[in-house]
From TrEMBL:
Top-level taxonomy: Eukaryota, Viridiplantae, Streptophyta, Embryophyta, Tracheophyta
SUPFAM superfamilies per record: FAD-binding/transporter-associated domain-like
Record organism: Solanum tuberosum
Biological or metabolic pathway of the protein: Alkaloid biosynthesis; nicotine biosynthesis
Protein name: Nectarin 5
Annotated FAD-binding PCMH-type domain residues: 1-147
């Protein structure tokens, strides 16, 4: 039976709580203790906590300390940190996973390990190699970062008639080169779209961060891309045409997050997350809908797949990179029975992890050879895969011999 580990929320493909094979959920909802040490500028965060809860507990203790994680407060830290985790401070301080200094993990043998006892290879793998792969992380020790007591946040709305195409085109050249204290991202959506993002008020009381329930829940499908060269104006105009289609009447959005700064300085192999220097920005493609039914879902999913196909000439290639925390089961070959060979996994693994994929497989084979922790896109163990292949080959040979005798 599969073991699925459920944190606090925002699992894009639902792999932590659904499966087409028998499975058991390990729910971390009660592991939510957060201990902030202002003097040491660190915190221990249990894996069932949300990002919002973490921000709130830091703010209780200090107005000049923070942590570079995501913008959606209901995201669970367990999955977020496991896949890298980014937010508006990535150009200043890198990813959440870049600022993890220790962890407590249960391995496949039931041992509780910290950084010293698990070793540097496993500690490297869990900081960006994806959740529910190498073990069950109980808690993370994070390094807090210095922040100003007051920051400036602003939004500018521009339409195509207000020269938006040229603005976006120019943004690609300058946003990754701005000072690391400045983060300017772009959200592309249809005018009067009902998309509400995370839905949390910006001027409400601080305790809104403690809510573990999203303000609105909708059906959605997401994809991701990385951009190395600026998209020409003609290419951008082709994107806008997708947003004028009938399928885009509800809520479609592209979020462009600039890189540069600290992201250019950290090695692509420092942790499993490989998308560093050379990237101008990352794109998150999203489509939302409210109506139920397979036909409605297929229509919207078809829309985002067509947009994704259109984007191919303008984004990273060989591989076309993707972000593991925006897990996408459209990428690669997935075996719903829970066994994924190395060859199958490398199709999507190279997109998520690039040259770090083989090192992740090596660590997985060492620490969880039987592939106890797994899902449809977890890192495979070479030993469990080899055993499975040998059994299948023997079974095939036996059947063929029986047929030959008959």
């Amino acid at each position: 039976m599969h073991i699925r580990v459920r944190g606090a929320g925002h699992d894009y493909e639902g792999l932590s709580y659904v499966s087409e094979v028998p499975f058991v959920i390990v729910d971390l909802i009660n592991l939510r203790t957060i201990n902030v040490d202002v003097n040491d500028k660190s915190a221990w965060v249990e894996a069932g906590s949300t990002i919002g809860e973490l921000y709130y507990r830091i703010a209780e203790k200090s107005k000049t300390l923070g942590f570079p994680a995501g913008v959606c407060p209901t995201v669970g830290v367990g999955g977020h940190f496991s896949g890298g985790g980014y937010g508006v401070m990535l150009r200043k301080y890198g990813l959440a996973a870049d600022n993890i200094v220790d962890a407590r993990l249960i391995d496949a043998n039931g041992r509780i390990l910290d950084r010293a006892s698990m070793g540097e290879d496993l500690f490297w793998a869990i900081r960006g190699g994806g959740g529910n792969t190498f073990g069950l992380v109980l808690a993370w020790k994070i390094k807090l970062v210095d922040v100003p007591e007051i920051v400036t946040v602003f939004t500018l709305d521009k339409t195509l008639e207000q020269n938006a195409t040229k603005l976006v085109h120019k943004w690609q050249y300058v946003a990754p080169r701005f000072h690391e204290d400045l983060f300017i991202r772009i959200l592309v959506s249809r005018l009067n779209s009902s998309n509400q993002g995370d839905g949390f008020p910006t001027d409400g009381p601080l305790d809104v961060l403690l809510s573990r329930v999203q303000f609105s829940t909708r059906y959605f499908k997401a994809k991701s891309d990385y951009v190395y060269q600026p998209i020409p104006e003609g290419g951008l105009e082709g994107i806008w045409r997708f947003f004028f289609e009938d399928e885009a009447q509800s809520s479609q959005v592209m979020i462009l997050n600039p890189y540069g700064g600290r992201m250019d300085e950290i090695s692509a192999s420092a942790i499993p997350f490989p998308h560093r220097a050379g990237n101008l920005y990352k794109i998150q493609h999203l489509v939302y809908w409210d109506e139920e039914g397979e036909e409605v879902a297929e229509r919207h999913i078809s829309w985002i797949r067509r947009l994704y196909s259109y984007m191919a000439p303008f984004v990273s290639k060989l591989p076309r990179a993707a972000y593991i925390n925006y897990r996408d089961l459209d990428i690669g070959v997935n075996n719903i029975k829970g066994y994924t060979s190395y060859v199958q996994a490398k199709v999507w693994g190279i997109k998520y992890f690039k040259n770090n994929f083989d090192r992740l497989v090596h660590v997985k084979t060492k620490v969880d050879p039987s592939n106890f922790f797994r899902n449809e896109q977890s890192i495979p163990s070479l030993l469990s895969g080899r055993t499975k292949v040998i059994n299948e080959v023997h079974h095939s040979i036996k059947n063929n011999m029986m047929h030959a005798i008959i």
